[in-house]
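Forwarding the complex inputs:
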Amino acid sequence: MEGKVFLMYAETELHAGKGMDIGVLDLPIQRERKTKFPIIQGIKGALRANIDNDKLDKEKIFGSEPGDGEETKPGTVAFSEAKILLFPVRNPERLFIWVTCPLVLIRFLRNFEKKDLIKHVESTQISDSEAVTLDNQSSVWIEDIKLNAKKSDWLLDFAEKLSIQASDIDYIKNKLKKDIVVVNDNIFSQIVETMTNVIPRVRIDREKGIVETGALWYEEYLPQDTIMYFIARETVYSDGNELNLLENALKDRVISIGGKETLGKGLVNLKVVNL
Amino acid sequence: MNELYAVYFQPEDWLAFRENRRFNPGDSVKSVFPSPFPFYGAIRTALLKKYNVKLFYHKKPELSQELLEKIGDENNPGLIKLYGPFLYSEENGIKKHYFPAPKNIYIYEHDSNKTEYKIMQYFDTEIKFEDLQLGLAWIPEYDNVQEIGENYIELQELVNLQSEKEFVLSNPENFEIESRLGIALEKSYKKSKEGMIYTMTIYRFKNGGFFMLTDSRETVEELSKIDFVFLGSKQRWCNVKIESFPYNVFQKIQSENVAIELITPAIYENGITPKEAKFGEIRIKAVAANKKMAISGWDYTSGKPKPMHQAVSPGTVYYLDKVPENDEVITNQSLYNQFGFGRFVYIPYKPFE
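Prediction (whole assembly, two chains):
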């Protein structure tokens, strides 16, 4: 592959907001309009803000800063959006499990040219009442929804390879080897739309010590343990070494992405993966 | 014509092709349907990288004559000969190809509530359009006529239309136009800079993307050297694949009365038509015109916008008085025809009786 795939493991809840919205949620997260899959658009800006100048020539990698009146120069690395890979949901038997779907897996595996694995994913038919699992259980609970389980060897192959690289913590590695399920694209779209964390927030009147009138709002977060990824690629202006420099500056680091940083939100652990 | 090949550009997430105007902080810009230029630029840049040519921003690369003849420059496409772009979708390995819908289509609703897409007939009269004398593209019915809401025609439906069989128009459902918000962050604080916010519309594909056609083996050979390009605004990554195209959309049709539909933009001397409303000796009898579009681009080597032209949009239909002996009589009339401007497909029509 010609780029590097960075895995983002959410160590705290994530809020990459799309701004104010009309509806129950005042501050929803960013999503693809067609699929409702969560995304984070501003990866490049977040990385630039998280790396110190002495660690990396930021202008060379990310381009010149906008707004100084002169025309901006492009960077030497192009970044994809951050895309969802595994979404954690409550499970009464295993505390939580990670859910994904064929479309998400195909998009991810395309980056590694895993044609055989992609063919297996494409040829697996999953109905609305089914889920592909890693073990021989007869059913699986996704929050309060019970789905018929069917085991698949290709998922085992994927989980094995991913788990080795996704975390340094053995407990998480072992959990990834057994607690990933695949549902169909439509069910996954509904899961990531309805099973995010929605948190009410208030603002307190400093003098009265009570909630200010009208100061109640709802924020949406991706749960802790969500796994996303983005791809970094060298552009035509690169010298051919920028990706290695970027990897060295970022790998195994915990950085802050998205909003509500001072509330402890948005901490993600970065790993470079190659399946 | 030689065998046709399709070159598929499958974006990783989204693509944007900005309006032809300056873009400032605090601005809001729309993405437009792209002209061929961003695709030629993206391919040329990817090939330069493949040929190990070091590129510097705002500096024209020094190329050998041999390489210049292969991959061209901003005024000359070299060996690269592409027609498009068009849209495609792909689900479970099955591709559907969408071309611009001809502007001379209307919907007729039968008594049984069955709807039928029909081609406007040619009405032999004389109207003055700017300084041209033309006939009319004419809807022969007075009642039960609806305007079309679809902007595309899928390949198999185009084949049906060209064969004078029943056809339908459609809108592909594999992409959405989304609004994207961008901000600049303060250098020392992770908060947005005052006034540094912009919005732009983007094409987000669930599957598929854009494709272009070529009948040139040399183009296929050159493009086989690249696997991806950075395309459009914000350098978005696209996978590139070449496959044999299942049908020659450019072939002549078996019909006494022949019209042509532009499937790429055309820039003509007279605006909506070539000079004197003629393609060489072939007279244009009537026009069903789409809205004009602006064609320009950004010259990365000089950091300046390219000249701007008003072009005839894809979908525009010209009713002709006879069938041209060769396609060049028509394509040569458009500026930038070497970049695939002014490409067309033949469609049939009937005279009004």
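The interface with chain A takes residues 12-14, 25, 45-46, 48-49, 55-57, 92-93, 175-176, 178, 180-185, 187, 190, 193, 196, 204, 206, 227-228, 230, 235-237, 239, 303 of chain B (CB under 8 Å).
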